[in-house]
């Protein structure tokens, strides 16, 4: 029987995998391949948290393949050279993969496809990552969207989910050797990620379990609870989606299958969040510069504050003196994740109260989030900063104290991640500098004052905004 390489990338699963399905449907024996080539991602090579997750996800994929008689072949890049070598070793007649959509990987993949086809190989790429590919939805004028609501309205009008496909029961064995996973050096030398794995189980089985837990639990009341960081009110499925351990259309199928009068609003609310993920890739495809530059050029002349490393380090370490901000940054370091509402707050504080460029925040999130995704990360930070598509107006400056009082009213989230404040009365945990005597007595290790006076920081941000209008 003929052999085909199946090149795994951001699709680390066996069910609902269009590239694998196509290879099997064409009658090929698939040789599963992963090529490690982070340098080809250029300035946005995966960060440390992503690497730590990837190590475990690849191990899970290899275990799933071995349970079916095959195994994952791991090689180092460059990608084109590694694939050519494997074609020579296996005599492969075809190569299949699922598409990636980053600005630097699309032309690379197009060149590889062209060169292999010129050699006479069958080469196919598929959509294994999105509900709609970035070029599928256009405005009535044929251009890209910059506002989410009409984008999502169009998406819903064209709602056609891909069919579900079970993982194959068995796969043909092959004798191709690869590198041991450990040779990639993905796991950190110092186990700073140890706390991650108390929360997460990378791999396809972990993704499926996370979806089941969500549909049985947090989905009920999702619209009301998704903004409350003191509880599990969200799906926690974003890292599994990022690594392709579950297909977005499987999530949508499952949710559609459990619709009821009492659940419709929550299901639609969650599907809308999947829609934001689609919108972010739509934006990055059409505006590829936005991973590094403002989408709205009006902000190119914005008066960002001069770089102050001490302020940036205090923000990164959760030592700003503002409890909800510090709680979010400490959750991020401990778990590789941060609640979405809190992401908006820490981002607003960095970009507006401190006036530190949004790219500094984007880079830190990129290195520390297990769900670090170039499109979502770029869109999220530009939304927070007011420089992107459908963005929060720059003059909308979140007050972290009132936001904490609204969304963490018992300060449970704050207390969990900033435990030195636990002895303070609940009301004092939101702005402890307003109770200096209590703070000095009960939490002397916590900053006595925030990095910036919130009112002064807001006024400085608004003044800078008006100068670049």
From TrEMBL:
SUPFAM superfamilies referenced in this protein's UniProt entry, alphabetically: Cryptochrome/photolyase FAD-binding domain (SSF48173), Cryptochrome/photolyase, N-terminal domain (SSF52425)
- List each copy of the Photolyase/cryptochrome alpha/beta domain by range: 2-131
Q: Which GO terms describe its biological process?
A: nucleobase-containing compound metabolic process; response to light stimulus; response to stress
**Gene Ontology molecular function:** deoxyribodipyrimidine photo-lyase activity; DNA binding; FAD binding
State the InterPro entries in the record. Crypto/Photolyase_FAD-like_sf, Crypto/Photolyase_N_sf, Cryptochr/Photolyase_FAD-bd, Cryptochrome/DNA_photolyase_1, DNA_photolyase_1_CS_C, DNA_photolyase_N, Rossmann-like_a/b/a_fold
Q: Which UniProt key words apply to this protein?
A: Chromophore, FAD, Flavoprotein, Lyase
Residues that bind FAD, according to the entry? 222, 234-238, 270, 371-373
Question: What is the name of the protein in this document?
Answer: Deoxyribodipyrimidine photolyase
Species name: Stenotrophomonas pictorum JCM 9942
């Amino acid at each position: 029987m003929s052999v085909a390489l199946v090149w795994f990338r951001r699709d680390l699963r066996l069910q609902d995998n269009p590239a694998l399905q196509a290879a099997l449907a064409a009658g090929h024996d698939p040789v599963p391949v992963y090529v490690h080539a982070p340098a080809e991602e250029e300035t946005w090579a995966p960060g440390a948290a992503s690497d730590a997750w990837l190590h475990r996800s690849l191990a899970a994929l290899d275990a799933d393949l071995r349970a079916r008689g095959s195994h994952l072949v791991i090689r180092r890049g460059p990608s084109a050279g590694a694939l050519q070598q494997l074609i020579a070793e296996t005599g492969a007649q075809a190569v299949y993969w699922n598409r990636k959509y980053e600005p630097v990987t699309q032309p690379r993949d197009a060149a590889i496809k062209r060169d292999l086809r010129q050699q006479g190989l069958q080469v196919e790429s598929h959509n294994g990552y999105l509900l709609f590919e970035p070029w599928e939805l256009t405005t009535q004028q044929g251009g890209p969207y910059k506002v989410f609501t009409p984008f999502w309205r169009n998406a819903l009008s064209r709602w056609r989910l891909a069919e579900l496909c079970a993982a194959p029961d068995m796969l043909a064995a092959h004798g191709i050797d690869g590198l041991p996973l450990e040779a990639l050096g993905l796991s950190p030398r110092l186990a700073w990620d140890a706390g991650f794995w108390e929360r997460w189980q990378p791999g396809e089985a972990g993704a499926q379990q996370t979806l089941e837990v969500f549909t049985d639990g947090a989905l009920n009341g999702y619209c009301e609870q998704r903004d409350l960081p003191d509880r599990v009110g969200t799906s926690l499925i974003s890292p599994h989606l990022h690594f392709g351990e579950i297909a977005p259309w499987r999530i949508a199928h499952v949710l559609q299958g459990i619709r009821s009068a009492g659940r419709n609003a929550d299901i639609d609310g969650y599907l809308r969040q999947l829609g934001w993920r689609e919108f972010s890739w739509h934006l990055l495809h059409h505006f590829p510069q936005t991973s590094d530059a403002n989408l709205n050029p009006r902000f190119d002349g914005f008066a960002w504050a001069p770089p102050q490393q001490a302020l940036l380090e205090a923000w990164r370490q959760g030592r700003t003196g503002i409890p909800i901000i510090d709680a979010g940054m400490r959750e991020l370091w401990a778990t590789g994740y941060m609640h979405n509402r809190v992401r908006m707050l820490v981002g607003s504080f960095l970009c507006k109260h401190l006036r530190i460029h949004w790219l500094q925040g984007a880079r830190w999130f990129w290195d520390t989030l297990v769900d670090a995704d170039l499109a979502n990360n770029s869109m999220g930070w530009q939304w927070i900063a007011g420089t992107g598509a459908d963005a929060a107006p720059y003059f909308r400056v979140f007050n972290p104290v009132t936001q904490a009082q609204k969304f963490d009213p018992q300060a449970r989230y704050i207390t969990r991640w900033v435990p030195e404040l636990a002895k303070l009365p609940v009301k004092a945990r939101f702005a402890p500098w307003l109770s200096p005597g209590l703070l000095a007595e009960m939490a002397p290790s916590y900053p006595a004052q925030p990095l910036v006076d919130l009112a002064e920081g807001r006024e400085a941000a608004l003044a800078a905004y008006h100068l670049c209008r």
